[in-house]
Model the fold of this input.
Amino acid sequence: MAIIKVCGVETEYGIQMLGVPDPNPITASSLLVNAYLSLISKKVGWDFVDESPMVDARGFTRDFQLAPEVETHLINTVLSNGARYYVDHAHPEYSSPECYTPREALLYDKAGEEVLRRSMESAERFLGPGQSVVVYKNNSDRKGNSYGCHENYMMDRAVPFGKIVSQVMPFFVTRQIFTGAGKVGTEMAYLPKDQVPFQISQRADFFEEEVGLETTLKRPIVNTRDEPHADASRFRRLHVILGDANMSEYSTFLKVGTTAIVLSMIEDGFLDGQEITLETPVPSLRAVSYDLTLKRPIPMADGRGATALEIQGRYLEAAKEYAAAGGLASLGDEAEGKEILRLWEEVLSDLEVDPMRLADKLDWVAKYRLVSGYRERHGATWDDPRLAAIDLQFHDIRKGKSLFYRLGQERLLADEEIEIAVSEPPRRTRAYFRGKCLAKYASSVAAANWDSMIFDLGEDPLRRVPMMDPLRGTADHVDELITSCDTAAELLRALGS
Amino acid sequence: MAEREMVRKTSTSRSTETVEEESKSAPTEKSEKLKAELDDLLDEIDEVLEDNAEEFVRNYVQKGGQ
Done:
């Protein structure tokens, strides 16, 4: 049986500083993270030395003004919901905690968006009049610079990596028809601008390889980073870098949900013998993104062609058989797995009839409909900067400014649960132990990481608690223990470490 | 568990009289609702949209990331 698909989403946000001469993106990103830290009552940092002025809101303003070039590794913190919030490549990045089901991954992704929103509001206090930092949840500046939204899935180490690559490739190339966030135009320099007025994916323009280790250059469709953050003899973490950052709850839920199902099928050998092979995955990734009709076939290795919808349909059919054979337990919640299958089928069938049916559910469809409506009303041509502005502002995370939020899309989550997820960790993974330790014993936590916690009890040496299994350290395992231990010293004694 | 229930906050109110009725009327009802929402946003979009679209788009420059 496939193992539980522990999963998570990490997002690099776009930022813009307004009213600041010579804005520096690293400074702006650091400002956001620190502004958030100053908001939450307890210091839940990691890698911060107590004397550092950066952790102190009072010292922070001065530090910001005098030394805008802060060391990025200093801005690296972990939150009581188990997430990591830091500065990476001149962007603020939020990595969700390890989640037990795809819906939980959606919930903690949206909680991350809320963290960024609060950071932005808090940052105003450190800025002068007329200055602000605005955050965008997108993947491109429309000038050839891209930043990512990565997913992570736990897999059994016993599955050969080559098999994962070959069986997941056609799925990855085609899933954008429901996960794409949409983009006005293309950033491929060699293409005439009018050839691609609008495309399905934000990211398709930036992929150059089928398989590889890179994430910032020559990006590959399947990333080979082998950093499990867990027991490497048992687990693999599949690091998926080709997805778009989604505003739509449906797009994120389907993205993580369908991918988790496909990876489970691969792990169980369910796709063996019924492989589909694309002739040219990289050009096909773009071809799918550029084809708003969803009708043009992409070439297959057997000499025939198939549309993205047909290829997705084949994965869906396999998934339905897999579900009937009891395969969805690895989704963490079988009822949720069935809901994913139902939505997957509904979305594929709506896309086939008319993608506009999904204008209240999927990002790319909603954005396309909005820019098309604007064009018609104002007689604007595709190169009108107002359409590009709509494209960017769709992803503004401020609810009053965001065109996504102004459209009033269908939802899967309630605001109340997002509010809770901003501070409470998932209950069914090791994120629970991390988050609760930070909430309760913050002053004794010297460092935290995905696979360990390091405690400073005021005496040498520092004490390290390894967390090599993402499914240990859950509420069921440690809730009673943490409730009964008033101090970190008691906790460590009880853990026998 | 309640938390696992899918919550649809803004879903259209659908006819529940008969299944047949629903399958016929729902898409029309839905597309009308979608159109009305889009029209509302298009009516007010110029107030929401950044003042100088050209400058806004030009100034939105990011460092490449992952």
Residues 427-495 of chain A form one domain. Confidence is low (pLDDT under 50) at residues 43-73 of chain A.
